[in-house]
Amino acid sequence: MEKKSIRQKINALFLIISLITIVGLSLLLTVGFYETLQNTVFDQLEAYAKDLKSIGVFEDASKLPMNIGDDRIRITVVKKDGRVLFDNAVKISDMSNHSSRPEVEEAFSNGEGKAIRKSATLNKSTFYYAIKLQNDSVLRVAQESENIWSVIFRLLPLLLIASALVLLISFISSSHLTKTIVDPIEEMANNMDLVESTGKYKEIQPIIETIRKQHLDIIKSAKARQEFTANVSHELKTPLTAISGYAELIESGIASEEDTARFSKEIRKNSERLINLINDIIHLSELDSEAFQPETSEVDLYELTKEMAHMLELSAEKYQVRVSVWGEHGVVVTNRNMMEELVYNLIDNAIRYNKPSGTVDVEVRNLAKFVKVIVRDTGIGIGIEDQERIFERFYRVDKSHSKETGGTGLGLAIVKHVMELSGATMEIDSTVGKGTSMKVTVPKNSFAKNNVSNSK
Ligand code: ADP
Question: Which of 275, 377, 396 to mutate to test the pocket of ligand 1 (most atoms within 8 A of CB)?
Fold first, then answer.
C-alpha cells in the first residue's frame, strides 16, 4: 500500500472545511436575506392595508372607481360570502369566489391573514395581506416580489467572490501549515548527522533526539564492527605469516635438525596464539549475540576462583609468580562460564603482567547483597590514562609484552562484556611499577533484570 502524504491529507482536510464553510455560509446568507425581504414586503403591505382601512373608503367598495391606489399594489375587497366586491386590476365579474383563499379565510376568522403564492412570471412570488374591515368584509392587498431563487441568483456573484476568498485563504493556510509541519521533518531527515541541528518545534524535538541517537548508535556500531574486522584480520595475519615462513624453511630442507626443532616450536606457539585468538573472538561474539540467554545456577565464587588459580598454576610457575586465594565462600546466582572467564582473565593478566618473584593475591568477600573478588598483583601497573582503554578490543599498553605472553588483547573486553551482562562493576587501583588491584563486585542475583539494565 502506498503511504499517504501529510501534505495531501492536510490539503484535503482544509478543502473539505472550506467547502462546508462555503455551503453553510451561502445557505445562511440566502435564507437570512430572503427572510428579511419577506418581512419587509409583508410589513409594507400591512402598513398600507391598515392605512386604507383607516381611511374608511373601502367600507362601501362597490361604488369605488377601479383606478384607485398604487398600481404596483393590487387591492381587492371580498364580501363575507366570498364574492369579490372590488378589485383595482381585474374586472370583478371575471373573478371567482374568494372565500377559500388562505389569507382571506384567515382574515375572516382572525382579523388578518398572510400568504405567499407563485406568480405567473417565473422568479416572482405574490405576497398577500388581508385585513377585516368594520363592515365584516375583507380588504386584501397584494404585491409581486422576488422569490428565493431570484434572491439566490442576485446573491450569486457575492457568494462566488466569498467562496473564492475562503478557498484562497484555506489554500494559503493549508500550504503554510503543511510547510511548518513537514519542512522541519524533511530537514531533519536530510541532516541526520548534524548533531547541533535542532528541530524548530518542541513537539518534534524528542523524536529528533531519539532518531538522531539511534542513528549515531548505528553509525558507531557499524564503525566499531568494521574496526574489529580490520583488527581481527591483522591479528590473524601475523601468526599465519610466521607459521607459513617457518614451514617453508623446514620444507626447503636447508634447516639443520636443531633449527627444525626451533622452527617447529615457533609454529606451535603461533598456532596456539591463533587458537587463543579465535577462542576469544568466539566468546565475544557469543556475548554479543542478542539471542544470548545465559543459563544461571548457584556458583560459589570462592570455589570458582580457587579452580581458576589452579588452572593457571603452570603459567604462574613460568613467570615465577606466587598466586594465593583466600577469603570467604560467597554464592551468587549467575552464569558459571561467564564468571569463569571473568576471574580467569583477571588472574591470568595479574600473572602475565607481573615481575619475577611477584605475587598475585586474590581475596573473596561475602557481603549482604554482593560478593567481591579482589585481584591484587605486584606487577608493572597501568598508567591512569590507560585504565579505561584497556577494556577496548585489542588495546594493549605494551603490544610486544602482551604478544610475548600469549595475550590476544581481548581478555578485558570479554571481562567488560561479562560485567555488563551480569550487572557486576569494577574498581581499578593501579600504580605504574608497583602493581594493580582490580576489585569486582558481583550482585548475588547477578542476572536479575535491573542489574543488567543498570550496568549499561
Ligand atoms: P591481553 O591479552 O593483551 O592481556 P587484555 O584485554 O587482557 O589483553 O588486557 C589489555 C591490556 O591491559 C594488556 O595488554 C595490558 O597492557 C593491560 N593489563 C591488563 N591487566 C593488567 C595488569 N594486571 N597489570 C598491568 N597491565 C595490565
Answer: 396
Q: Is the CB of 382 under 6 A from ligand 1?
A: yes
Angle at 362 between CA 286 and CA 364, to 5 degrees: 80
| Atom 20 (ligand 1) nearest CA | 349
Cross-strand partners of 393? none
- Residues 353, 334, single domain; the answer is yes
State the virtual CA torsion across 258, 264, 268, 269 in degrees, nearest 10.
50
280 CA: nearest ligand 1 atom: 2
CATH number of the domain where residue 146 is located: 3.30.450.20
Cell numbers for 62: 362597490
Q: Which domain holds residue 420?
A: 297-443
Examine residue 178 and state whether it is found in any structural domain, yes or no: no
Atom of ligand 1 minimally distant from the CA of 403: 3
pTM here?
Answer: 0.62
Q: Please write the tens of the pLDDT for every residue from 245-263.
A: 999 999 998 888 899 999 9
359 falls within a domain:
yes
**59-116 pLDDT, tens digit each:** 887 777 777 777 788 999 999 898 998 888 888 888 889 888 999 999 999 999 999 9
